[in-house]
């Protein structure tokens, strides 16, 4: 049987911006090798694989090179695809069982609100090769599970980065998040995310990175709700609400392609 596939631009309200994800709506589980091959064929930052499981949905995410433990934009895309195709009623919460536990998504006032785990980060000295890979000295560095967070003095510093991806590839973490306070009145913070170790030179808009950035900046700014902009070439925005050890990520999504895998 063909597998329905939907390509969605996430964390945006217009096509060809935000972060693209393919969503495969499956009748049941599939071989990991097949899912990885499909993700390589799609060649998007993430491909999500969703099938009904118990009272909810099983969800896995693959980059063109590897399976990942947490992905915000492909979760948003998956919920959007389930509601749009009417696999799930719009008024019903999407409940996903994932490698990061239960994640939920709700449709609220034209946007999708997701409930994710906060990811703690510890301040560290810049590890060997980090400054050289980014080409500019940061004001602070944190180690957060699979990645480093690097703070700069200004939004201009973040936007001007031209990382040496060959050096980023040699760092002992899967990604690097560069961040700063925003110069725009509409946003609190800006960021960029580099992840060549998993096949994504620069991720357009990264929900999981804001599970780190949200708690970090919320504490610094003494506010639980933030508006964030990821300053990639495609660009995208999301709202971030921090509550204890959970982070709510809120954004929009647009379908750009529908088809099927044969």
What class do helices, strands and sheet pairing give? alpha+beta
Overall pLDDT level: 97
Count of DSSP-assigned helices? 6
What percentage of the residues does DSSP assign to strands (E)? 35-45%
Q: What is the CATH-assigned architecture of the largest domain?
A: Roll
Name the overall outline. Answer: globular
Low-confidence stretches: none
The H-level CATH homologous superfamily of the largest domain, spelled out, is: Diaminopimelate Epimerase, Chain A, domain 1
Overall structural domain count: 2
Summarize the structure.
By secondary structure, the chain is an alpha+beta fold. The chain is built from six helices and 18 strands.
Describe this structure in words.
This protein folds into two domains: about 5-115 and about 250-260, Roll (Diaminopimelate Epimerase, Chain A, domain 1), CATH 3.10.310.10; about 120-245, Diaminopimelate Epimerase, Chain A, domain 1. It has helices at about 30-40, 70-85, 130-135, 155-160, 165-170, 210-220; strands at about 5-10, 20-25, 45-55, 55-60, 65-70, 95-100, 100-110, 110-115, 120-125, 140-145, 145-150, 175-180, 190-195, 200-205, 225-230, 235-245, 245-250, 255-260. The chain is of the alpha+beta class and about 260 residues long.
């Amino acid at each position: 049987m063909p597998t329905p596939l939907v390509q969605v631009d996430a964390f945006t309200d217009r096509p060809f911006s935000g972060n693209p994800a393919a969503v495969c709506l499956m009748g049941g589980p599939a071989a990991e090798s097949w899912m990885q091959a499909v993700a390589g064929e799609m060649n998007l930052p993430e491909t999500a694989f969703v099938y009904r499981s118990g009272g909810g949905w099983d969800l896995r995410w693959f980059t063109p090179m590897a399976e990942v433990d947490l992905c915000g934009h492909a979760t948003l895309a998956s919920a959007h695809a389930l509601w749009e195709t009417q696999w799930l009623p719009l008024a019903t919460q999407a409940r996903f069982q994932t490698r990061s536990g239960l994640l939920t998504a709700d449709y609220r006032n034209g946007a999708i609100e997701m409930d994710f785990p906060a990811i703690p980060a510890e301040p560290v000295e810049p590890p060997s090769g980090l400054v050289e890979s980014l080409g500019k000295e940061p004001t602070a560095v944190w180690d957060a599970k699979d990645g480093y967070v690097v703070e700069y003095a200004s939004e201009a510093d973040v936007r001007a980065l031209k990382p040496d991806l060959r050096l980023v590839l040699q760092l002992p973490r899967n990604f690097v998040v560069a961040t700063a306070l925003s110069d725009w009145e509409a946003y609190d913070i800006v960021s960029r995310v580099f992840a060549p170790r998993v096949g994504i030179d620069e991720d357009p808009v990264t929900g999981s990175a804001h599970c780190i950035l949200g708690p970090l900046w919320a504490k610094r700014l003494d506010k639980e709700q933030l508006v964030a902009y990821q300053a990639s070439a495609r660009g995208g925005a999301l709202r971030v609400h921090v509550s204890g050890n959970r982070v709510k990520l809120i954004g929009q999504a647009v379908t750009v392609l529908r088809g099927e895998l044969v």
